[in-house]
Amino acid sequence: AYRLCTMRKLPSLLARTLTSGTSGSSMLPDMSEVRSRLRDIVGASTNWRDHVQAMQERKALHTLLAKRQEDLPPRRMKDSYLEVILPLGSQPEIREKYLNVHNSVRFGRILEDLDSLGVLICYTHTKQEMQPRSPLSIVTALVDKINLCKKIIYPDCDIKFTGNVSWVGRTSMEVKMHMLQLHDGDYSPVLDATFVMVARDPENKRPAFVNPLVPETPEEEEIFKQGELNKLKRIDFSTASLLKMAPTAEERNIVHDIFLNTLDTRTVSFRSRKLPPNSVWMEDAKLKGLQICHPQERNIFNRIFGGFLMRKAFELGWATACSYGGSRPFIVSVDDIMFQRPVEVGSLLLLSAQVCYTERNYIQVRVHSEVYDADTREHQTTNIFHFTFVSENEVPRVVPKTYG
């Protein structure tokens, strides 16, 4: 359930590269500049009508791709280190976009900002000095983990994001980001996040090589090793999926115990089930939503922005936890956001949120995202999201009714 956020200290060399302390934060780029830089790096069109031509122009960048990773110069962690300010306190005019009804910051907006920053960090890592435009299409593969240290993010205090590439494979990069908020003249930790990005060719069709990463200090060695362990864990998790492997003996016993606890002893029938006290059937703990994917929500590659998908999924997950617990839920952790396929502009995006586990006042919500093709009438899964919320009060136990 609740995993306390243990903020790792930045490696000492990264700490020395900080370009600002608590003063001078106005000199840092803000989120609008982050998105502007991304458009410049890729050569993206700001006009939807010109997007086809912009994508055609990117095809010519194929010749700039490296044939081998060894042909690319290695980079250090501090080479990709960035700081970005979100001036909610010093620029009140942007506050409205981030404000929720409880007078705190909308976490869905923070997810959008983290996604944009993670991509820019990766472009900073792979930047070639003689190339004004990058031949790489860098996209979010998954959100490995986001842990929060605070329940409430205040809407009238400046926020600072920091981050850098922490591990590199051949075509993928792990990015660690931190978010801090200004209180009484000091920035205090709010959350830390781990994203995995993948590099593809200019048309976003095939994998592309990225610059290797060279750790320089013992602290960086540890961070790099952790990135490698994270990769191995993801591989193990995918191979142990129920869609590929039978449940373990322990899992089978858990499922059978749940079944026995919900069996109606008067009839002793597989179909006759009884809800235990202070419980809710899992099938009655769902909410669904639909989004039409307009051009406004496109990313620099003219697909639907991953941050937008995360925001919409989070808001539906929050609403599900709110209606289930009967009180305001607070986000504690985000885990296992898998981006399985891109979402095209014009798609019908179907979101389905499901309470899948509860314990005391904690609520685990899974959100399944799929696109519907009106021409073929086919559904395809695009994303799966996992959110952990804590409610103000103890919540009923959620109980599965079917094996699935």
Automatic annotation (TrEMBL):
Residues 80-203, 283-395 form the HotDog ACOT-type domain. InterPro entries: HOTDOG_ACOT, HotDog_dom_sf, Thioestr_dom. GO terms for cellular component: mitochondrion. It is found in: Mitochondrion. The keyword Transit peptide applies. Keywords: Hydrolase, Mitochondrion, Repeat, Serine esterase, Transit peptide. Gene3D superfamilies: Hotdog Thioesterase. GO terms for biological process: acyl-CoA metabolic process. It holds the Pfam family 4HBT. Its main location: mitochondrion. Coiled coil: none annotated. It comes from the Eukaryota. CDD domains: BFIT_BACH. GO terms for molecular function: carboxylic ester hydrolase activity; fatty acyl-CoA hydrolase activity. Belongs to the acyl coenzyme A hydrolase family. This is ACOT9 thioesterase. It comes from Himantopus himantopus (Black-winged stilt). The lineage of its organism: Eukaryota, Metazoa, Chordata, Craniata, Vertebrata. The gene is Acot9.
